[in-house]
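Example record

One chain of 266 residues, shown exactly as stored in the release files.
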Amino acid sequence: MNVDRYALFGHPVALSLSPRIHQQFAQSLGETIIYNKEVVFPEHFSLAVCNFFEKGGSGLNITVPHKESAYRLADKVSEDAAIAAAANTLWIKDKKIHADNTDGRGFIQDLSRQKIKLKNKTIMILGAGGAVRGILAPLLKQNPKQLFIVNRTLKKVEQLVEDFSNLGKISALSMEEIHRQPIDLLINGISLHQIPIDKINLKPRANYYDLKYSKAAEASLLWAEEQGFNKISDGWGMLVSQAAESYKIWRGKMPDITEVLKWNDK
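Predicted structure tokens for this chain:
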């Protein structure tokens, strides 16, 4: 019996839980798949993707630093991938490479699950990397009052503002200006040592969300507790939700994520 093969391409991938997550999805649906993770260097990315599909691979998840390359490599792209100019999910259909970006949908689903409101809220994002880019369009579609992006390199933020300004109220802020805006939600996409911890201006019952998860987010979650945020979350729910969206694209079935969300050894 031929078993459908899937994989995660990135660098690094050693700590990724994607194989375990997708195997759990398959098991819960009574299906059998093979899912591996592979270290792929940037200079080998295009060849690795083509070889994977030529050898009968069914689908790929793409992580750093290849999401922009995956978008450029694809023959057909979804609206979410096109807006983000990045892709985290690839598959073959009609002999063409198709691409989607499920990061933003996974992020919004996780916030909704936690009952974190976005409409008419003032939101600040720390960082301007690929993870941030992937969530901006879905975030703006929720109609926040204002979305501010803060990064040490202001040029990168200004580019994001230019790319997404047609979708809603989005502005760039320097680290020096961070104290001027009282916020309802702080989304962290950078390392703890980069946060100007003495300058955050919180509204009552402000919430905190770190796009990282597990040990990578531990220090920032502790910092958030000290700041007095209301709800404090890491990106585990986002990871699981975006993975479920990828699984549905590949296999036509949406897995139940309830059990995976409960994993406490991640």
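Notes: The chain has two domains: 4-101, 104-236.
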